[in-house]
Amino acid sequence: MFSKDNLPHEALPIPDRIERSDDEALEAARDFFDLMSKRHTIRDFSPRPVPRDIIETAVATAGRAPSGANHQPWFFAAVQDPALKSRIRAEAEAEEEKFYDGGAGDEWLKALEPLGTDASKPHLEIAPWLIVIFAQRWGAFDDGTRFKNYYVPESVGIATGFLIAALHNAGLSALTHTPNPMKFLNKALNRPDSEKPVMILAVGHAAEDATVPAVAKIKKPLDEILKVY
């Protein structure tokens, strides 16, 4: 955290050390891989409610992510109110219509064809929660004095990964949604200009008849994403 006060460096012993043998570590790594292999991006949500405590705990987990200079330059707006979700859907779809009407360009639209997406986003109302993720481009003290945040996109990206993993671990599904532009979210959620919306996560339980695009099951093999030096 950044403060006007002089905060001296103080080295503390690791407070929560996890010790595992190599065999235990490999088993834990494989267990987590198996868990995350069952994560799917879905667009068909059940209206089944999700308790607020689950969302709050998942966001608290995201807040444990590392960040540049420990400034933690993120903000999460969790939206449950039906009227506000309806407004977000309407404004997101307005941007999506421009996107699919040619604003994206032929190559981008062709890349999306196997996913079966279009400008209609009913999940933004059906999912019991929308979590809007904001990147704080700068911070401000109580007197309005600004201070700089560092590695903001990287930090927010890591925190978002923590959040998605935490939601999946809780048995929930999430859909990442990035209408462009997203400035309407600042107005809808009364967030300051210092914050840039980067993503909407629709969160809830998958509907009984939920589907995923076949192409989404095609993942790059390890030898295409890893080289050991």
Automatic annotation (TrEMBL):
Keyword check for Endoplasmic reticulum: no
Flavoprotein found in the keyword field: yes
Record domain Nitroreductase: where: 37-205
Sorted UniProt keywords: Flavoprotein, FMN, Oxidoreductase
Superkingdom assignment: Bacteria
Name of the featured protein: Nitroreductase family protein
Organism of origin: Maritimibacter dapengensis
